[in-house]
Amino acid sequence: MNIVLAKLGISIVSVILLVVMLLKRTALTSWLENKKANQTLAVGWLFFRLIPFVAIYLIADMATTSDVNGFWDEGSKASQGLIVYKDFWSPYSPLYAYFLGIWLKLWYDPKMIVLTMAVMDGIAVLISWHFYRPFQSRGTFLFNSLIYYILPGSLVLCIVGAQEDVWMWLFVALAYLVRERRVSVVWYAVILAIGLLMTKAIFVLILVPLFLIEKEKIRFLIPMILIGIVSLAILYPLVGWEFTQPMDEAQTLRAPNIPSILNPWFYNHIGVGQKFWNWIGLVTSVGLACIAAWKLRNADFRVMLSRVWIVLYATMMVVQQSAYSNYIFLFLIPLVFYVINWNSTWQIILLLIFNVLSVVHPSYWWRLGMPCYMTPSDTAASSGLLIDYLMQVSIVLLTGYFVWLAFPKGNNQDV
Q1: CA distance 92 to 71
Q2: Of 132, 294, 312, 350, whose CB neighbour count within 10 A is largest?
Q3: Residue 93: which domain range?
Q4: Residue 374 maps to a domain
């Protein structure tokens, strides 16, 4: 349980620092108003990404754990020229391992995986600055960026967990910025297709609501279809149907999610682990995202994407039985920079609790042996199991709250 205590300790320190910052929010925002954005973001990244990395992995010389070692297995083999899906297993899109392999050419060590994730997180925040600047003053954005850097859900999952989920937001925000500059749906579609090839299969889900509201549907589809055909033409002769390995992730049971917390109250009779739950989750998350996108079809794209992104991926986090709370890192940027009302003490408190629980629970659940509760008595069979189940319920409820917060409440809502 050392890693659980370490994550909890870092989270508590982060929360204390955040509370101090929030109490000084007005003064800090005014002070940041006159600072240069790029330099300030770089300094924030230095203090809350690079320095923690150096302290944990170079000074304390801690070994990498968990997903980092899996990423190392993929990236190291890709750097040696081995073929993804054939020579090594991967739950990610085909270019993911090779991108990591490029970084490993600079420093052939698992710790380089963590540094790569930190750099990509910094790039995602920088792109978000250009994405959100029409809606926020410089001081407000820079203050929110510091909040984001310090939140446990980004700090711990980036530097300790080395999660890559934020890459998906990076690509979709970058795609829009390129389209805005070039006034071309083709480049927009190309970058989205590259994002799909670089990250994971669930990136394809956002393409459904984006296609729904896209006015140039044919020009949007053609580049993606062409890139898809070329990708299959390369992959199939090399690996056959093994390129479907990322789909195996949908069969992996994790927690917390709605099936995991309901299962004991139905005495294991709701079919947990069955494929129909995957379809229910898929239809629910994509369906809600499409409804939200349609309601926001006349809104600014940035508004629409921010809200639809949270609705889609936060819902997926609790309805898909293969998802787990690390996915908070997937939608934390639009949640922090656009949806949360920083004048609402209630929203702030719930966000902080949500972050701490989402960071701590995966490691706690894993070290309990990944329990699956069959009956109500199972949830209270020990204090450890009761704590786990209460955390699961809390995360699911809080996720539902933030989905509700992001979901447009009226037709054609544009704010």
Answers
A1: 10
A2: 312
A3: 2-406
A4: yes
Whether the predicted pLDDT of 415 surpasses 90? no
In the chain, how many domains are there? 1
- The pair phi, psi for residue 269, each rounded to 5°, is -110, 15
Helix (H, G, I), strand (E, B) or coil at 222: helix
Average pLDDT score, the chain: 94
Secondary-structure breakdown of the chain: helix, strand, coil percentages, each rounded to the nearest 5: 75, 0, 25
Residue 257 within any structural domain of the chain = yes
415 in a structural domain = no
How far apart (Å, rounded) are the C-alpha atoms in residues 365 and 388?
Answer: 7
Write down the pTM of the prediction. 0.96
Say if 411 falls within a structural domain. Answer: no
Tell me the per-residue pLDDT of 189-220, one tens digit each, with 9 for 90 and over.
999 999 999 999 999 999 999 999 999 999 99
- Owner of token pair 């920079």: 337
CB contact at 8 A, 197 and 163? no
Q: How far apart are CA 313 and CA 307, in angstroms?
A: 10
* pLDDT(413) > 60: no
Least confident of 116-120, 193-197, 251-255: 251-255
Helix (H) or strand (E) holding 169, with range, is: helix 166-182
Interhelix angle 204-213/185-198, rounded to 10 degrees, is 160
Dist. CA 352–CA 124, nearest whole Å:
21
